[in-house]
Amino acid sequence: MNGGIQKSKIDLIMSKYLRGDIVLANLEPTVGHEQQGVSRPCLIVSSNDVNSIVPIVILCPISKSKPGRIRRYGVVTIPKNDGGLEHDSDILTTQIRTVGISRIREVIGQISQAHLVRVELSLKMVLDLD
Fold it and tell me: With pLDDT > 90 as the criterion, what percentage of the chain qualifies?
């Protein structure tokens, strides 16, 4: 008990994911052009406040960068080793998605603050936010 209030297992699970975490998540099933994968790297972009009170997170899938690929709208490229990624990677802000925390397999790292700011700017453009 903490101050007379006992935390449930779900409360403890919800509070462990943070904005900027890179996680491996199960994105199956998918439809059409949605990014897929049973163990796909994704960046959590939902606020820590939201992450601590509901059993969902908002995330952007991450794809391995390919040399010579033309940069697309809504893609933020980050170098390997940032956030525990093994390859230069593209964060796909046009593929923003809400998933239940049961889809998250593990946290592999935390993106740098400088790259998180770039992702936030891209999300503002994609979602037409001021």
Answer: 63
Cα–Cα distance between 118 and 99 in angstroms, integer?
22
CA angle 43, 40, 23 (to 5 degrees): 40
Distance from C-alpha of 50 to C-alpha of 130, rounded to nearest angstrom: 20
Lookup: tokens for 74: 């809504």
Is residue 115 helix, strand or coil? helix
9-126, CATH topology level:
SH3 type barrels. (2.30.30)
Whole-structure pTM value: 0.82
User: Would the pLDDT of 2 be above 50?
Assistant: no
Reference 96, options 43, 47, 54; nearest CA is 43
**Alpha carbons 68 and 10: distance in angstroms, whole number:** 44
